[in-house]
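Retro notes, item 3 of 5
We never archived the inputs for the copper (II) ion complex last cycle. Fixing that now. Sequence and ligand:
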Amino acid sequence: MRFLDSSLLLLAVTISACNQPTDAPRADATTTPEAEAPTTSPAEMSHGEAKVNDPAVPLTHPADAPARSTQRMHRVRMTTAHVQHALSPSVVYDGWTFDSTIPGPVVRVTVGDTVDFTIVNVSPMPHSMDFHAAEIAPSRAYVNVNPGDSLTFRFVARVPGAFMYHCGTAPVAAHIANGMYGAIIVDPVTPLPAAREFVVVQSEFYLGNASAQGIHALDWPQLLDLSPDHVVFNGIPGQYAAHPLQVDVGELVRFYVVNAGPNRVSAFHVVGAIFDRVYVGGFGTPLEGVQTFNVPVGGGAVFDARLVEEGLYPFVSHAFADATKGAVGILRAGNPSGTISH
Ligand SMILES: [Cu+2]
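Structure as it came back at the time:
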């Protein structure tokens, strides 16, 4: 938890500087000029949770959304494989994955499209696939695929939105906590207004003690206690604070947010912005003028906002224990100088 060590210390320094007791002895104004307020941020932090521009944090999963698709038939093939997932340069997790990444690849289709999906299992245990964008009999499609085997099923995407997919093999919480999830975007037939688009999948890691090889695996009792070590956007704690997402001042910014959990609600919020629109599902009448919106575990939502001036705008889960554990990033609008302390 190296984010905590440095940032909380700096936050404490900032808070203590702001809370001087009013009855403290006053300096002699004639001989000692009052200290000036700092003109630059005293700490390279975002909301006290993660460093901005930290090259030590890996950027393994760019947040840019894939382009809207023009295909009507999507042949999607994913391979389930167990791979080591680096949460940081020094913390490696025994991940279970779709296509060797956590989260798995983003799938993007349009309402009315057919998804022809094949899961190939090269891992040493059964896995499966559950698309929340599908309406299908789980007993036929979401069944276990044994090691060395594969399974194909099809569905037509009927409802637009940002949907989760995940392994549904029991215990599901373990398969999700180990990394088997991702996002599928279903666009409406009439496109939403053009925007700079990002995909953010929130999830949690529960770290057991490291093995002799230094690799952490799932701590099941900790998962049942709903007490993650890390809450992350796209698989890495604080990666978009370390590597801010660049946008233009005033342009429409869109987040497709999926919350994989397996346990924590995502109270999605952009500091310094109010969402013009939040599409909860179906892309009917959106909510307007929203400050924070809960994305439930196993759910998704689409967020539109504009950043009104140059600067650094943190996006977080406003459940701040989770932001402190890594669910924090930065939107960098224009080319601002300095960093941020909030
Ligand atoms: Cu699985």
